[in-house]
Amino acid sequence: MFLHFLFILFAFSFDSFKAKPPITSYYWNVRTFQCDHYDHSNLTRCALHLPKRESEVNPLCHEETDQKNVTRVYCRIGCEEGDEATVLAKIPSWNHKCNIYYSYNLERRWEDWFLWRSEPCLSTSVSFTIRCGFPRNPAIFYRDNSHLFEYEDGS
């Protein structure tokens, strides 16, 4: 009887030393960045579509010209706190004006990720599916830091 008691006690105490796996170790979030080019006005409008959030038109988009006189348009993709971003798909995939590393890519800037595009990708309608990786749950981060995402209306 005493040995049976020791065995049960040992089994329960040994079970408590097992390492518990984390609930999840990494969080992924997918968004779509869609650009529509209007030939008649040589104008392109882009929008960032995030799940369960309102779409944002031309999200912090700005132009930069490098030393080779190549103009790039950078637009924020909303991966704050993300330490990884990947273009999963280009739609349409047969769009040969947009080639990764040459006429579009992702770049980390100002605590966020930006998608840049240059010619000839600037003059075409294209959509990108982008995945962001977070070391912690972004929903909890936004909830706990909502004051960081409030906009001032300037009045």
Descriptive account of the structure:
With 155 residues, this protein is mostly beta strands. The protein has helices at 2-16, 138-144; strands at residues 27-38, 43-49, 56-57, 62-65, 71-76, 84-91, 104-109, 112-118, 126-134. A five-stranded antiparallel sheet has the order 3-2-1-9-6, with no helix packed on it. A four-stranded antiparallel sheet has the order 4-5-8-7, with no helix packed on it. The protein is globular.
% residues in beta strands: 35-45%
Main sheet record: 5 strands, antiparallel
Give the class from helix and strand content and strand pairing.
mainly beta
Tell me the overall shape: globular
Average of the residue pLDDT scores: 82
Question: Cα-atom Rg, whole angstroms?
Answer: 23 Å
- Uncertain stretches of 5 or more adjacent residues: none
Strand order of the largest sheet: 3-2-1-9-6
Number of DSSP helical runs: 2
Distance from first to last alpha carbon: 80 Å
Count of extended strands: 9
| H/E topology pattern | HEEEEEEEEEH
Q: Helical percent range?
A: 10-25%
In short:
The chain has helices at 2-16, 138-144; strands at residues 27-38, 43-49, 56-57, 62-65, 71-76, 84-91, 104-109, 112-118, 126-134. It has 155 residues and is mostly beta strands.
Keywords:
mainly beta, 9 strands, 4-stranded antiparallel β-sheet, 5-stranded antiparallel β-sheet, 14% helix, 155 residues
